[in-house]
Design brief:
Blueprint lengths: L4 H17 L5 H7 L6 H13 L3 E2 L8 E2 L1 H11 L7 H12 L5 H16 L2 E7 L8 E8 L2 E7 L3 E6 L5 H15 L9 H14 L4 H17 L3 E6 L13 H12 L1 H9 L7 E5 L11 E10 L2 E11 L4 H24 L1
Antiparallel strand pairs: 1-2, 3-7, 3-10, 4-5, 5-6, 8-9, 9-10
Amino acid sequence: MDLNDRKKLILQAIIDEYIDSAEPVGSRSISKKHELGLSSATIRNEMADLEDMGYLIQPHTSAGRIPSDAGYRFYVNSLMKRYRIGLETIRRLQQELEGRLETLDKAVKRAGFLASVLTDYTTVVSVPVSERTEIKKIDLVPVTSETVMLIIVTRTVKNRLLNVRLSFDECEKIASVMNLRLRNKTVDEINYETIRRLETELCEKLSINPKILIHVLRFVYESLTELDETEIYVENAKSILKYPEYRDVEKAREIFGFLDDKSNIKQLIAETGEKEGINARIGGENDPEIMKDCSLVTVNYSLDGKAIGKLGVIGPKRMDYAKVFASLDLISHEIDKLLGLFSDG
């Protein structure tokens, strides 16, 4: 059943009030606070229909209703009013960003901080490293008779144990060829085809079991593609404690632990995809269980017309979506303009 105009107005009023109060909303409250021209009884019947349709939830028998994930999704897609940010706020934001224009990562990190100030929610930002990751050295070191350690040196050191039988001499020969072909190359220059050519060369030059070489090279390729070329910054994580959803100490501890692990944030942001514009993942649309009571709103920022990172806001499902959308839209446009200066320079 489609929502008629009356149901839309009531759903919008309930979500707006719940965002503001964090308390279940009843028909009497809607009747008093919102000029809908409807009686409490009519509103109550419509609320029951909205619950049956999956847009509202009644947490307790005697309580009012709260929005479901589907209710929030419909609200964000179809009912949310436009939020206007004041001109003075816009000017201050522009001055704050322009006054700290030193490097790309510092500018974007500052933008993340300003987003947390504007929205009063936790913000996350992914920033590409300023220098592309370059392979400095690859080593293979026998550890036991059946294991060797693969060591890849870039600006950091990554190692992994492989279950293969290789002598010290064989390890040196393989490492020598790999260094000859891969040293001083950046990670983004090394792809599957590069590794395939290296595999062919190793098989032709060395009298080593090809299956072992393939096994080693597979791990080399996986290790290279896993190298971290993105920094993650989290701002204002403590803002979570302001919201009643996280007054439970154990729940707050879990979400803080999640936000403290940057690999979690990186995965969370990656799952939002590469769609243009502002995107929201609401409650159960997020994969991690800890995020089922949260929403994540993200936007890409670009350099030379190419998306290079994301700015995101994490908060309770009842976050002020209109304000968050307007804030991210403003800040992403300002970042794009500033990053244009890096390109022009």
